[in-house]
Each structure stands twice: as C-alpha cells, then as structure tokens.
Amino acid sequence: MGASKNVLITGGTGLVGSALSQHLHAEGYTVSHLSRSSKKGGRIKTFQWDPERRFLEEGALNDIQYIIHLAGAGVADHRWTAARKKEILDSRLLSSKLLYEKLKELPHNVQAVVSASAIGYYGMDTGENLVDEETPVGQDFLAKVCELWEAEVDKIKNLDLRVVKFRLGLVLSKKGGAFPKLKKPVAWGVGAPLGSGKQFMSWIHIDDLCQLFNKALDDNQMQGEFNAVAPDPVTNREFTKVLAKVMGRPLIMPAVPSFPLRLVLGEMAEMLIGGNKVSCQKILDKGFRFRYQNLQEALVNLQKD
After folding, report:
1. Which of 33, 126, 198, 296 is deepest in the core (most CB within 10 A)?
2. What CATH code would you report for 6-173+202-230+279-291?
3. What is d(CA 122, CA 126) in angstroms, rounded to the nearest whole number?
4. For residue 257, what is the DSSP state?
5. What's the average model confidence in pLDDT over 27-40?
C-alpha cells in the first residue's frame, strides 16, 4: 500500500462519520476516532477527549496523517433555546480550539485537517440567487455559528497544515439525518411542500460526500472552503414531487403553511421555510465527478434495500 494512511475522525459515530469511517477503511485507510466516551475493542480504535476540559488522551495523534473534524451538537435535534444555541456553538468552537492547541503543542505527523461546516454559512434563506464560496456570510444564528467555526478551524493554517472546509448541504442517507423524516409523510400519503415550497434545497448523496472527503485527503492541491452539494439544487416543492414519484405515492396535500411550523419549531423553522440554491462549480473545477448528479437518481438509489 506504500505510505501509511492513518486518519483520526472527530464525530466519527454520527451519520457522516459512520459512513466515512466505513468508506475510508475500504479505501485502505486506518481509521481511529476521538470520542467523549471511552470505547475499547472493535475495528476502530477510539481515543477520549473532552473539549470543555481541554483534554486529549495521550497517543491520539501518534502516526496520524489526517484529521477529519465533524464534531458538533446536532442543529435539528432539539428546539433552539438559549442553552441549546450555546451548546451548538460551543461544541464546534471548543473542539476546534482543542485540535489547534494540541497540534501546536504536541509532536505529530499530521499533514491536513478536513473540517465540516454547512451551507447555513450563507444564511438560512438566500432566495433564488445562486450562491458560491465567495458569497458573504449571512446574518442569522446558523450563519454566525458557521463563520466562527470556520475561523477557529482556519487558525490551524498558521501551523503550516493544509486545511479544507466542506460546507455541507442536506445529506441524503437512508441511515439517518433528514431523509427518513422527509420520507415519512410521503409514505403515509400526506406528503406536502413546506411553506411556499419555492425555497431551494441543496443536497448531496452520502456516498458522494464520502468520496469528497476522500478526495480532500488524497489531493494535496485542495485547500480552503468548498460547497459539498450536488449540481442539482431543487425547490422544496420539486423535491417532494420527485420523492413521491420515486416512492410511488400520491401527492395531493396542499403546502403546509409557515405559521404552524414556526409555532411548533420556533426559530428553527426557518431551516425548513428558508432555503439556499448553492453552486458546486468550485469542486467540479477540481475534477470531482458526482455519482449522483440529479435528485431522482439519488432517491432511486436510497429507496433500494
């Protein structure tokens, strides 16, 4: 296999981390995880860390060439109280800060750090404008989280390491995340667009996302921020329509009005009512080719057992 390929993943047991661990293992990488809980045994070696206490288990960076940083409290898991917002922000900033401090302080062979961010960087609703990596940061809560998160990760560049940041769109996977939740009402025959239905959804199939992270490790020319979205952003109405078609279910319900969504979800509802039409041209220019370029292909694949 030549040179060793050892990668350490933070947030390795989440939706993206689990798929990525499996993918990289199949590609010949040796994968280890950083986790708050101590888990010994199994194929993947797990080291403990605690960003609040600035603790990293001894040996975690030994022989590691790459770090993939995915850790962060789920933005859609709970209603956004003041305490939850603090948790969402702190989990990203403190973990990024700890990585920077330990990479600065300890001897290591790390060459590159690849971090997650999100297209929420541009704001929860950018309308019909096509946004790219040069589009300014938005003004809402998620935009500020992404801005501060990326700034913390960027400090690692000062250590002469290559840094890549992927701004993730809606990740489509049958194993979790938003997709199973989007499927449920359609399966029950009550699928409907949300709000105006005109808001754009920029998505990516989990397999393509794994390939993207893989490319970021392999391609020494890649650095900076990239939108991790497929080349086929669609409106919420179109997404619901294609999903119903693929599932062979009727779509007869009127759109769900914005008001009850805001009532139930509070500020978090803007994630559903708003949307982003995001360009992936920068990653295409790097020679990346998507396996699932259009939504129907992606959904057909995800419907398979």
Report:
1. 33
2. 3.40.50.720
3. 7
4. P
5. 88
